[in-house]
Amino acid sequence: MKKIFILLFIALGTITLQAQETEWHTNLSKAITLSNKTHKPLFLFFTGSDWCGWCMKLQKEVFKTPEFKKWAKENVILVELDFPRRTPQPDELKQQNAQLNNFFKVRGYPTVWITDVVMTSEGKIQFAPRGSSGYVAGGPSAWLEGANKIMVNKT
């Protein structure tokens, strides 16, 4: 009985650790600070979390898989830019997301942009987009193949 309890404890600890590995930021300023510190591009995920079926499918088939989590941890800073219909959001978050939606000219959901953050000599923030993607059938390997092609488009 004691061995079963220990094994269960270890298994739950491993699951909790894996869940903590993938951090999705919603505050762009904090994500930019982290991007500058780590020299990783931003991974901007434009989604309608509570109404967009394709967004939910992309989350389930790709973003919640161990393959994607490992890739993301090594390569990008994850930012979720949500446009829910039923879930309330603070006005500041709505404004931030709308500005980015407009800047990147998002026309449908899900849309993912991978972009570098560039600081001008005046201290202003600029984006240097590498490329974008949406839902890609075929699971994490097919999606990551496309993402890796975008990653090499460094500006």
Could you characterize what this model shows?
With 155 residues, this protein is an alpha+beta fold. The protein contains six helices and four strands; from the N terminus they run ααβααβαββα. Helix 3 packs across helix 6. Strands 2-1-3-4 form a four-stranded mixed beta sheet, with helices on both faces. It is globular.
Shape summary: globular
Largest sheet: 4 strands, mixed
Please identify the structural class as seen in this structure. Answer: alpha+beta
Mean pLDDT: 90
Number of strands: 4
Q: Write the element-wise H/E pattern from the N-terminal end onward.
A: HHEHHEHEEH
Contiguous uncertain segments of 5+ residues: 4-8, 14-20
Write the layout of secondary structure elements.
Layout: H1 2-21, H2 28-38, E1 42-47, H3 53-63, H4 66-75, E2 77-82, H5 91-103, E3 111-119, E4 125-133, H6 139-151
Helix pairs in contact: 3-6
